Amino acid sequence: MTQQGLVRDLREAYSGRGMEPAALQSADEVRQQNRAVFNAITYLMLAMAVLAAIVGSVGLMSTMSINVVERGREIGVMRAVGATSSAILGIFVVEGVMVGMLSWLLAVPLSYPGALLFNNLVGSTLFQMPLDFDYSVGGMVGWLAIVIVLSALASLWPALRATQVSVREALAYE
Predict the structure, then answer these.
(1) How far is CA 142 from the centre of its chain?
(2) pLDDT confidence of residue 155
(3) Is residue 130 part of a domain?
(4) Residue 69: inside a domain, yes or no?
(5) Least buried of 25, 68, 103, 129, by fewest C-beta within 10 Å?
(6) For residues 154 and 61, what is the distance between their CA atoms, to the nearest angstrom?
């Protein structure tokens, strides 16, 4: 007899006696409900991570734009001594990627205790039991790749603006 068959037989037996059980579920049904809750939490956390990455990228773009404006004279001097547009572009993109990697490096040691705390809270709040905790090194490496790509993209627009600064404009600006 399957679990669903047993649940069906129990419902019929209780109904025949005029009793309606408040909850009667098979282990498979409970497992499916738990899986649905975990999936919802996972997708919510992924959405929050994507939003945080977008906000971080916009912040980096803003910081790099201000950096280009503040370093206008330096850009002019580099142009005056023969720096090419691609060299200036490379300087600002590499700088943005380094800032992104530094932020990732600072976030990694904070993510472990935060994830452990969240794991314990979800387990005790939703399931009244501790959950298994698995910290993914592959996930950290994946986020490093995402941080590098987003940092490069966020730095690209300010870097392109830096390449359009002429020597005369840059040295006259103050």
Answers:
(1) 10
(2) 97
(3) yes
(4) yes
(5) 129
(6) 5
- Domain ranges, residue 157: 51-172
**Cβ-contact 152, 93 below 8 angstroms:** yes
pLDDT in tens, the chain (174 residues): 677 777 777 777 777 777 777 676 777 888 898 899 889 988 999 999 999 999 999 999 999 999 999 998 899 899 889 999 999 999 999 999 999 999 999 999 999 999 999 989 988 988 788 888 888 899 999 999 999 999 999 999 999 999 998 888 777 765
**Residues 159 and 96: beta-carbon distance below 8 Å:** yes
Nearest to 26 by CA among 12, 15, 11: 11
Q: Which residue has the tokens 């990732």?
A: 104
Structure-block tokens of residue 16: 């025949």
- Contact between residue 138 and residue 145 where contact means Cβ atoms under 8 Å apart: no
Counting the structural domains of the chain, the total is 1
Read off the tokens for 44.
């919510």
CB atoms closer than 10 angstroms to residue 78: 19
